[in-house]
Amino acid sequence: MSAVVSDELLGMQLAVDHLFHLGHRKIGHLAGPPEHSTGFLRRQGFKQALSLHGVSASRAPSQSASTYTREEGASATRRLLDQHPELTAIVAANDLLALGAYDVLRERGLECPKDISIVGHNDMPLVDLVYPPLTTIRIGHREMGRQAAELLQQALDGSGSACVRWCFRPSYNSRLNDQRQVGG
């Protein structure tokens, strides 16, 4: 079956690299549902990225959400912070999970990025309207949609290949929440 996807492993690599550049070493992950390809691949990408920075994947704090919703993001963040209060940053598997993390920081009297930096994934519409604006991994929604429509049209008119896979490179979309340098 043809597919148009984003490079999930690279997306997590970009997020973790950015946080390491800022000095974060105690980074947790709000993972998506493991039965979804994005949840599985983004968790793998998070672990691989930490390994590249010399952090054992087995020591990587992670909590899975059962769905990609703000409410599940909040629930997973509570569990993550209860078990790992030392965290200075969180990489969320999508922006709705990250917004749930924002909610938990507010309810606990913590601030982003002063106390904990958060990086989301997907660059969903309107996430720049939250305060502070969410730093996120941008995937090419428009380009992916255009390519998927082209593949569908080719399948319908018989001019396409039997099976094509397009994998788009995500990019880092730095906003305001991650400007805190950690450490010396």
Task: Name some characteristics of this structure.
184 residues; alpha/beta; six-stranded mixed β-sheet; two-stranded parallel sheet; 5 helices
Can you give me a brief rundown of this structure?
This protein is α/β, with parallel strands linked by helices. It is 40% helix and 18% strand.
State the major sheet.
6 strands, mixed
**Beta-strand share of residues:** 15-25%
| Cα distance spanning the termini | 50 Å
SS field, number of helical segments: 5
- What order do the strands of the largest sheet run in, or round the barrel if closed? 3-2-4-5-6-8
Explain what this protein looks like in three dimensions.
40% of the residues lie in helices and 18% in strands. With 184 residues, the protein is α/β, with parallel strands linked by helices. The strands form two sheets. The chain has a six-stranded mixed β-sheet with strand order 3-2-4-5-6-8, sandwiched between helices. A two-stranded parallel sheet has the order 1-7. Strand 2 (27-31), helix 2 (37-52) and strand 3 form a beta-alpha-beta unit. Helix 1 (8-21) packs across helix 2 and helix 3 packs across helix 4 (95-107). Residues 176-180 have low confidence and may be disordered.
